Fold these 2 entries.
Entry 1:
Amino acid sequence: MGISRREIGRSRAVRVVLFVIVGVILLINPFFLSGYGQGVMTRFLCFALFAMSYNIVFGYTGLLSLGHAAFFGAGGYVVGVLKLRYDITLFWIGFPLGLLMSTITAALFGIIALRATGIYFLLVTFALGQMLYSLAWNVKWLCSPGMNGITAIPLPDLGIPGVTLNSTSFYYIVLGFFLISALLLHRLVRSPYGLALVGIREDESRMKAIGYNTWFYKWMVFLITGFFAGIAGILFTYYNFFISPKHLGISTSFLPMVMSIIGGLGTFLGPVIGAAIYILVETLAGTALPERWPLILGGLFIVTIMFARKGIWEYLLRLWAETSFRDGSTKS
Amino acid sequence: MDWFITNMLNGLSYGMVLFLIASGMSIVLGAMGVANLAHGALYMVGAYIGWTVVVKWKVNFALGLLAGALGGGLVGLGIERGLLRHLYKQLNEQVLLTFGFVYILSNLCLWIWGGMPRMPFTAKVFMGPIELFGIVYPKPRLAVILIGLILAVGLWYLQDRTRIGAVVRAGMDDKDTTMALGINLERAFAFIFFTCAFIAGAAGVVGAQLLGVHTELGLDVLLLALIVVIVGGVGSIQGALLGGILIGVIDSFGKAVFPQLAMFTMYLTMIVILIVRPTGLLGRKI
Amino acid sequence: MEALRVEGLTKHFGGVSAVNNVSFSIEVGERLAIIGPNGAGKTTLFNLINGQVSATSGRIFFLGQDVTDLPTHLRAHLGQARAFQIISLLQRLSVLDNTLLTLHGTKPSRFKMFQPVRQFTEVYDQAVETLKSLDLWEKMDEPIKNLAYGEQRRLEIGLGLAIDPKLLLLDEPSAGLTKEESADIINIIKKLGQEITVLVVDHDMGMVFELAERIIVLHYGQIIADGTPEEIQADQRVREIYMGIEECIDHAGVS
């Protein structure tokens, strides 16, 4: 391929430098930001995780699922209900239960949705997500009095005497979850299972012929992405103080999709970049033109599709491809 | 017996609205393989334009219907010619693009007409109740059933009996051969898309008699359309009609018996169909 | 021992029967070719044997086991390997990735989620060996679409063989290949041992007569002849249906 050792060395150096810069930013930014700013960073990390998990099912496996917010919101609703109905704010109860709910929801959705193929799959995942939305809207038990959704959800109680979380410490918790999740997802993507997902995206028929139970792989992808979307959703709910049916529905389901495409579909860090861009635009629009935010968001969708389909990551991807040449990773 | 008739008529009228909403979406999906998620937004545009003509300017309902239909049709055509036609066969991109228009059109309607929801409106001639089968029943609902039936017949005729219908069905089955036969598929597609958007706009005005007009319609109506398409199957007027009426009736009786269930009966029907017959009751394989 | 047995196999597509009451069996180690005019049902027959399509009626037995309702991936585990009419390798992925995927397909490690693929050294080494023997090791990082068609075909068949199948299904292996590339493929198949049973569908009569010990002729979904190459050559009905067969046989220099 004609890439010199020096080029590889230089690209690798660039990669490391980039990582270090971003890492430092992520670690020290709370000290330079107000509570609001820290909140924005926390929100970014939650969405970045959501988008990364969605990218596994959409970018890597090629399944266009429009119901993924259901897994994001289901965990959040468990946290909300625990506070609203049982006055439980303990993290060690809320988090595991919420995660369980997200994963079970994903498992059930998977069983139903995978009966459909092609366009129908899309329609079905959409409708399933909206079903949960409708449930959250109509069932009074799931609503704070007088509204749709649950409010007054505080930051979690860690059960350690004398320790209460504030926005800064919570940010670091979210960062921790984000980094661990990113690491796990990265390993997943490079594993035999991850390679098989790409194979299924490219030619499911061949994958069956060489021995892969493709239904099972696809169903597991629902579980896995539901799990990580659940983590994102639970942490988001604590940050957001409030969860609403909208967090279960299509408008939230579309966000990780937009982020993944802007950043670069099927690349590992593309969704994170996409999330950063989205949060940036959202924050700017929120301060300048809040009433026209949906218009701007819709415009963002259109611009992304018409002009940025390969994603911004495409340029950086070449650097990655070249540094990945012989260091043992698989290129897909 | 009265209870039964009332709910049956409720179901039929609502079902007709559902049919009108879903038919356009189903045809575009089946004929062109395009998932147009902005379909509900086109309904909404038609409804708002219809409201402006009928309620604000106090012009007659038929013209309002036409205006709404044209509005929907033109906006739809604009989206298709301008952007969507570059994305044939790219499902992911279509979905994202058309959904972007849901946001854009909803926000534009909000900007132009404000956030107050509009009450259901109808033609002067349809106002008030009528005695029928021993019960008293609102005329607008009957009007919906009537208009729906007329449109259904018209669309069926278009689909099964005209040349353009044959082209659509040929294109659905084998695009390459159809094009090789010298048929201008691009123009046919633009025509189909316009027609389906036109129907969506018309549905907006017809449906406004029952559902009123508000800025959340873009999404709400899209969801209804999708459920009907899943149940009835993609690609045929008959499927949309069967799906629409089935769901309308189930929903009406469901609400009458279990009012707290709201939209649940619809979702339940959808899930049952998915388990028993994943391509819908009358669906064509896409 | 029978490698494959097919009984009364029928497949209807709407009003058409692509395969109509087909019955035959193959012994382990046999080299069987199926020929017939286009549309005779050969690919449908393969799709039935390999599981891409389900039978309208009839039964399929693979190594004594009834696999009629068994999903494709499980048939791969029982030992079926297939090369498709249109090369099925994943075009956008590299040679190495395709190899690793194929090798893992019948191994339990295919479910592993937390270790990088390359850490499965046994499989990786096998991949290296396979690619070296196919003379494709230098191109390991090339996406499949950059390879010549003949190389792709060689790789597809080579990968099919790398998992030690019991039955090799070759659907028009010579399609799109030059004379040299075809000869290449013929050599690969000739070198195979008696544990593997080979079922070939092809139009290249030269290849068919060089490889096959037995030929079945399919026409409109039905078997019209089943015998040795000499018997088939002599069969009058076959000659009528397959006009031009004499020319092909003469050209291939088969007696």
Note: The radius of gyration of chain A is 20 Å.
Entry 2:
Amino acid sequence: MSGPRLLRVVCYSVLSAVFAAGLFAEVITHYSYASQFREVPNAAPSAMHLLGTDSLGRDLFTRVVYGTRVSLLLAPAAALLATAIAGILGGIAGLRGGWTERTILAFADLSLALPLLFVLVALRALLPLDVSPILSVIATFLTLGLLGWPSSLRVVWAAARRLRESDHFLFATALGYSKTRLLLRQVIPNLRPILFALFWISIPLFVLTEATLSMLGLGVMEPLPSWGNLLRGCEDFSAMAANPWRLVPLFVLIVTVICFQYILPTSGESA
Amino acid sequence: MTTWILKLAQRLLLLAALAVVGGLMCATMVRFAPGFGVDERELDPRLSQASLQAIRQEHQLGKGLLAYYGSYLSGLVRGDFGTSAFLERPVGELLKERAPFTIRAVLLGLLTAWVTASALALLTVRFPSWMLDSSATAFTGFLIALPAAVVALLCVFLRLPVFVGIALVTVPKLFRYQHNILAQASAQPFVLAAQARGVSRNRILFRHVIPVSWHPLAALLGVSASLAFGAAIPLEALSDSPGVGQLAWQAALNRDLPLLTSITLFVTLLTVAINSFASATHQERS
């Protein structure tokens, strides 16, 4: 097995393990992410608490596992939403051309000019700060999905336009294929690899953005854990130096994002 | 020349359209935010009916939506961004006070990022080797995997200025774009032909590859500006730097929407202006 291929296999294995941990959190740990062990706050790792406890006496390992569920299962959902919007709008723009194409591209250009984090912070601030944790998760990832499509749209549009001008598409149109058949037999199969690549690219981007928002107190709200709000404790440098195992959420996040980078389809594969 | 003026006019039109659309979006967000127009002073039992009426009029509650849009946009034209509810100061004044910090940090950060990323990209293209390529990819891959807020904490821990943090967030993405653009240009047939004729590697890079790559590289200026402004929020918020990013964070925590939306509009217009400058520069050169 060649070096890059081996690296991809390792990355796939790591990501599968992390996804599985998030998915089967209840099996991996029998504590609840909100349960407090008030007699042992700030405890060091032990057989009872694999990564110790936080200042409120909550089991850190449990919180990391449940945080993985929140971050890694909802980021793909947001990526799916963003890719779907980009796919639909980009596909329409590329295939229809004319004023529809110009309008959609102008709208995408306007949206691209908006600095994402500023808009996210502004939209997130529309919700009350004491919003329920579940609603904060939904709002955070929904906003990410609804705002994360403009850069992907340009890529889909370019591919759809190439498809519209291709000989085989022209041939299919000349044969009198219905619009549904064109969509099912020509458009979707040709755009699928690009949409798939865009979907994978968006996931780590959304994981990182959620982490930054939650670290600023504007993402997923306590007591629900996410990788981002688990990192809020990093601001206390002396506590981190004394309890280095508290950096585990950061380590998991970095390893996951790096693994995503290595498994992303190359340009040759997505073309 | 005429084409260039036409392109510039198009860009200015885009900027104006963005200002109007952005202004309307901001006004909508403020107008429909929960608690719009509710003032805690209204709970004061000592106030008379006339005082309560005056407070409500202050919030323009009696006006219809269109009138509200009109007054918001005309205020923007006059440079009146409204008043911050939580700092109780005019937003324009706050922006005037804070913007220089952010603009200086972003400009210095962009300069550092461009110099570092360009040097790294040129090095990997000029001396192609598996080792150098892998090292650069691993280094930038690690930086990309760090959330901007973690970079901000690193800067606080190492006592680094905000612009270094902005550069650290921008460098990896900039390097990857630049490396791809230069690598694509290096694989062009005319470069292979020059190599076959025995032209030196340095000459090929500086006389053939870079001039061809100039347009897509210049287009990256706008992308990098957008990245740099985005990084300003966590960096300024966590390192306690008195810039626009910190102001946006404080406004979000205090749900001060008039302030927050005005900051977003201001930063968006600044980003589009930098984008337009980048486009105008490379169009002029072409």
Note: Confidence is low (pLDDT under 50) at residues 267-271 of chain A.
